[in-house]
Every structure is written in structure tokens, then in C-alpha cells.
Design goal:
It is a single chain. With 88 residues, the protein is mainly alpha-helical. Helix content is 83%, strand content 0%. The chain contains two helices and no strands.
């Protein structure tokens, strides 16, 4: 391998690792944002009601959006982890 190929390989590896760290930070932040939803949802499930609002801060569309985003971020994280393994 030439020096340029080695440098490019290292750059790719470092970029993949930085992207992995960024995704992990985004996932951690989003999971922290979801924590306040846990108690109101547990109360809803315990009462077995569908439309009663247990907490004014419980916004189901927002919760759905955050959970969907979390799912996508975890998928991206998995892809980046595979790229890190290939680049290593």
C-alpha cells in the first residue's frame, strides 16, 4: 500500500469512529428526553385508558417522533459500527 492509501484508510477509520461517537451521543440525549414520558405512560397503562390524558406534558405525537428518531439513530449506529470494523 502506498502512503496515500494508508493515510486515506486511517482517515476513513477515524471518520467512522467520530461518526459512531456522535450517533451515540445523539442516542443518549434522545433517551434522556424520553425518560419523562415513562411515568405518565405507566399510569396510562395501569388505568387501561386510551384517550384520557394523565399528564398534560404527555404528547403522543411527540413521543412517537422521538421513538422513531431513536430507532433510526440506532440503525445508523449499527451501520457505522460495521463501517468501523471494516475500516479497522
Amino acid at each position: 500500500m502506498t502512503d496515500n492509501q494508508i493515510t486515506l484508510g486511517r482517515l476513513l477509520s477515524e471518520t467512522a469512529h467520530l461518526n459512531y461517537q456522535l450517533l451515540q451521543m445523539q442516542i443518549d440525549r434522545l433517551e434522556c428526553e424520553l425518560i419523562p414520558y415513562i411515568d405518565p405512560l405507566q399510569k396510562m397503562l395501569a388505568k387501561n385508558v386510551e384517550h384520557e390524558v394523565v399528564d398534560k406534558n404527555l404528547c403522543l405525537p411527540t413521543l412517537h417522533e422521538k421513538l422513531t428518531r431513536l430507532h433510526h439513530l440506532k440503525f445508523e449506529l449499527n451501520q457505522t459500527e460495521q463501517l468501523c470494523c471494516i475500516a479497522a
